[in-house]
Amino acid sequence: MKPLKPILFTFILFVLAEICSSWGFFAHQKINRLAVFTLPKGMIGFYKKQIDYLTEHAVDPDKRRYADSLEAPRHYLDADHYGLHPFDSIPKKWTDAVAKFGKDSLEAYGMVPWVIERNYYALVKAFKERDSLKILHYSADLGHYVGDAHVPLHTTENYNGQQSNQVGIHGFWESRLPELFSTEYDFIVGKAQYIEHPLNKAWEIVQTANGYKDSVLLIEARLNREFPKDRKYGFSQRNGKVERNYSEAYARAYHEALKGMVERQMRSSILDIGSYWYSAWVDAGQPTLKNLVKIEPTEVEKKRTQKEELEFNKGTMKGRGE
Questions:
Q1: Which residues of 181-218 are buried (b: 16+ CB within 10 A; e: fewer)?
Q2: Engineered SS bond to 58: which of 32, 46, 122, 280, CB 3.0-4.6 Å?
Q3: Mapping DSSP to helix (H, G, I), strand (E, B) and coil, where does residue 98 land?
Q4: Half-sphere exposure of residue 101, counting CA atoms within 13 Å on the CB side?
Q5: How far apart are CA 49 and CA 276, in angstroms?
Q6: What is the dihedral of CA 310, 312, 316, 317, to 10 degrees?
């Protein structure tokens, strides 16, 4: 009998790959890239010239999770921790929420709406200062956090199906499905719209995503009961490695049962990211984006970036995995 260790090791790698991403690098990069095309005249020229930067750096916040243990809760909100009616219970403003629940509790159960707000006003400031590097940095980061807020499993304590015997569903929904089926999606989403209240919009996004959470879990659980067990998984080559993954047949069945949910959330992410970028520019007074100031990062900032890249390459995530 052949030893099982190589198979077990491959499976562990598969599970780790599935739980350690948010929307997946592929989807985050595609979403940020397509958000550029929602922008109006006065913005789109600058953003199109920098589209490769915005695409590549769409995943920077995920990389920071390998260097900073406080990064993880910036990507989610465990709404169900706050009871049956969490969106009535959680104060919308950060200071009010801290007063009610305490900073440590908020950091433990997620902060994504407030992180969106914080990055939004950092982008407004960057536009006012006409600082090209900071405009790009905060645009890329803001895009990531807004994208994460659209993912249903970023709104629950059962974020990877660990409470319902569905470990791996997080990456299945937000990585495997977009990678397989996004070529079938309609990504013409219209033009960016001004957001009157950035924080309220962030809460609206999270609440909408949370409304899909039960369907994400229950539909997969039902499919798992009905689908032939010997066809649920397969092996595929990824980045030069053979990995065990959900089979294309199982993924197709799940994708169809979700009735367009992944496409809707990707489309909404694209439009909302473009709208946040546009609104920050408007709130900054619509500065010209030609001949911008290029303020080089400080030595401290450079060292922090180098550390983040080094820790990411080591491959050990700090804090909660997704």
A1: bbeeeeeebeebeebeebbebbbbbbbbbbebbeebbe
A2: 32
A3: helix
A4: 21
A5: 19
A6: 130
Strand extents, DSSP E, the chain? 233-238, 241-246
Tokens of 73: 């809760």
As a whole number of angstroms, the distance between CA 244 and CA 238 comes to: 10
For the question of whether the overall pTM of this predicted structure is more than 0.70, the answer is yes
Domain residue ranges in the chain: 5-314
**Phi, psi (deg, nearest 5) at residue 11:** -65, -40
Q: What pLDDT was estimated at residue 104?
A: 96
Q: Consecutive 10-residue runs of the chain (322 residues): their mean pLDDT?
A: 40 40 82 98 98 97 91 97 96 98 96 98 98 97 98 98 97 96 98 98 98 98 97 82 90 98 98 98 97 81 76 78 66
At 243 the pLDDT is 81
What DSSP line would sit under 59-78, residue for residue? Answer: GHHHHHTTT-TTTGGGG-B-
**C-alpha span between 229 and 264 (Å, rounded):** 29
DSSP 244: E
CATH H superfamily, domain 5-314: P1 Nuclease (1.10.575.10)
What count of other Cβ atoms lies within 10 Å of the Cβ of residue 45?
Answer: 12
What tokens appear for 124 in the block?
A: 């407004």
Residue type, 69: S
Q: What's CA 3's distance to the chain center, in Å?
A: 38
